[in-house]
Amino acid sequence: MTVDTKSPEKLLPTTLAALGIVFGDIGTSPLYAFRESFLGLAHLDVTRIHIFGVLSMITWSLIIVISIKYLLVVMRADNKGEGGIIALVSLLQTKVSGTSRSHHVLIVAGLFGAALLYGDGAITPAISVLSALEGLELVTTAFTPFVVPMTIGILIGLFSIQRFGTGKIGRIFGPILILWFLALALLGLRGILLEPTILIALSPTWAVQFLFSEPTTAFLVLGTVFLVVTGGETLYADMGHFGIKPIKLAWFSLVLPALLLNYFGQGALVLSDNQEISQPFFHLAPEWALIPLIILATIATVIASQAVISGVFSLTRQAMQLGQLPRMAVVQTDGEEFGQIYIPFVNWMLLFATIGLVLLFRSSGNLASAYGLAIAMDMVITTFLTLFVLNRWGWNKALLAGLAIIFIPLDFAYFGANIVKFFDGGWFPTIVAVLIFTLMTIWTQGRMKLRQQVKHGELKASDFVKRLPSSSIIRAPGTAIFMTSLSKGVPTSLLHHIKHNKTLHDHVVLLHVEIRPTAKIARKDQLIVETLGPDFYRVTFNYGFNERINVPRRLNRCKAKGLDLDFDKASYFLGRETITFKKPGNLLRAISNSIFSFLNRNAGRATIFYGIPANRVVELGSQVEI
Predict the structure, then answer these.
(1) Closest alpha carbon to 113 in 91, 86, 95, 94
(2) 607-624 pLDDT, tens per residue?
(3) By CB atoms within 10 Å of each CB, which of 162, 279, 361, 443 scores lowest?
């Protein structure tokens, strides 16, 4: 639910909350981003020109990508206050007219962009916690063998507490991250005092000089510099929880200054002693502050990981509601707060993937090679979707052309620089994205074929109602609610009920739940009641993809529409299809059919998805060939 930040007294508390959730990912990048720019694939020599060039690239990446692109442009493409790539995809379906090929390609690209975020959801906890605990090696090398086991232990603990929810814990995230960003700023100032001349690297000329004097090396470095902006998608995705104003206020007043001070402090430290490049972040701290800093860094990385995990949960539910993924069990962990959810299957899959990454790569330096490619691809997709939507919304074409000239080449430069890391680890998020996208495609196409087949044999409701009084069907007291995926016609579950039980309740409601490609539905459009005949009704519930579905609660609102029935004692009838397939014709189709059949059999129960009491549900099976 979007927070109202119009009043000043609400703006500061909301800004504090945004700090605790939104900026964890981008706020922990100083642990490894500057270091890996030298120690990564480029193997950059530690020279004055290179230090200034890297710092200039970092500065203007943060300004152009985060401050301008995301905060000033992308966040304008909101779906009734909601952000994120799923919101962009839904905007294409609601705001963009026509069914052109480019329109279809953009929607498919948007869904692939959503799939890319699952790879990021596994890498972020691994690289963040590893990079923090590696600071222990500066205390004593005796800690080195324990860094990986301790990382795995913290990750197991982090994923294990997800089922309890993060609502209460989230209240202390903001103050902790304020302390973290203040520590970043103070450490950076301490480093800058060693070499104040480092501040001249604020000029973009140093980045340009580096790019033109050593284009190949600078291109490789750009892939690591990109790590400083990997939290950009999080800013956009969490916009719906906090609003634009608190995110902007937190960024410009605290986060951006603290990040720049710290990066420049690391640069000044390395400039004064290039031996410090191994761990410049932790070397900024005096010896007495090292252990407290490691503890604070570990907490900050856990917070960053929590934000990404929660984001994956939200993304999964949005995809489920839009029909892109099969239903999974969703646990509401904090009353009615939509964002506070827990999805067990996704949680444990992320844990296994994250532990596997830690064991496979074993250091944050190695993981840096896997990190960035998925986000770079995602940012390219986000740019195109945003510009396309804003163009259809009537933005000035000259302005959009100017933005495209700035953003698109930069995004492709980041993408090209990261694709070089494919065989060094970038393959992981790519494979994850391809697998998730393939499952999305199989599920979406399978459900479409299933719905078409069911619709093909549907009986018109008007014909059924006309014949009902003259039929020999026995009417039983009470109310029956037949859930149907069809907006018209009589559901198969009702026909099977009559066929096998020879009875029908006195009051019959055909209930269709439609999830629209918009974040929220206006109250006046949330439910529609139609009278099809005596004691025979069709009810349609419209939900946004970012709204919690609760059928019994909304049924009680039907009384205001003239449908005064005792829904508290009603029986719900649901259809459950057993799917058979026509001859596939080729091996690929046979595999696709098998995967869809498996997903359909193991999809979460409709009773949980719709919030229906399980003890008042009757399931009626049918066989459908597609």
Answers:
(1) 86
(2) 888 888 888 888 877 777
(3) 279
Q: Tokens standing for 73?
A: 């442009």
SS3 string of 236-291? HHCHHHHCHHHHHHHHHHHHHHHHHHHHHHHHHHHHHCHHHHHCHHHHCCCHHHHH
Residue 453 CA to residue 510 CA, distance in Å, equals 19
Alpha-carbon distance of 89 to 545, in angstroms, equals 11
Using the predicted structure, report yes or no on whether residue 119 has a pLDDT greater than 50: yes
The neighbour count for residue 50, using CB atoms within 10 Å, is 23
Predicted confidence at residue 285, as pLDDT, reads: 92
- Give the dihedral sign, CA 252/258/263/265: positive
> Closest Cα partner for 78 from 208, 193, 235, 215?
235
Q: CA separation (Å) from 360 to 73, 122, 126, 355, 429?
A: 38, 13, 11, 8, 14
Q: What's the pTM? A: 0.84
Q: pLDDT (tens digit, 9 = 90+) per residue, 437-477?
A: 999 999 888 888 887 777 766 678 888 888 888 777 888 89
- Write out pLDDT tens, residues 75-106: 888 877 777 788 788 777 665 444 556 667 77
- What's the CA angle centered on 290, arms 285 and 295, to 5 degrees? 120
Query: What is the rounded CA–CA span in Å between residue 387 and residue 406?
Result: 12
Q: Which residues pair with 114 in a beta bridge?
A: none
Residue 329 near residue 608 (C-beta atoms within 8 A): yes
Pull the structure tokens for residue 276. 């410090």
Residue-level pLDDT at 6: 47
* Distant-in-sequence, close-in-space partners of 215: CB < 8 Å, separation ≥ 6: none
Name the amino acid, one letter, at 407: F
Burial (Cβ within 10 Å: 0-12, 13-18, ≥19) of residue 310: buried
Query: From the centroid of its chain, how far is CA 471?
Result: 52
pLDDT confidence bin for 3, thresholds 50/70/90: very low
Element (H, E) at 491: none
Buried b (16+ CB within 10 A) or exposed e, 15-44: bbbbbbbbbbbbbbbbbbbbbbbbbbbbeb
Who's near 502: CB < 8 A, 6+ residues apart?
A: 472, 473, 474
Residue 608 makes CB contacts below 8 A (sequence gap 6+) with 327, 329, 330
The CB density around residue 578, as the number of other CB atoms within 10 Å, is 12
Over range 118-122, report the average pLDDT: 82
Taking residues 335-356, what's their average pLDDT?
Answer: 80
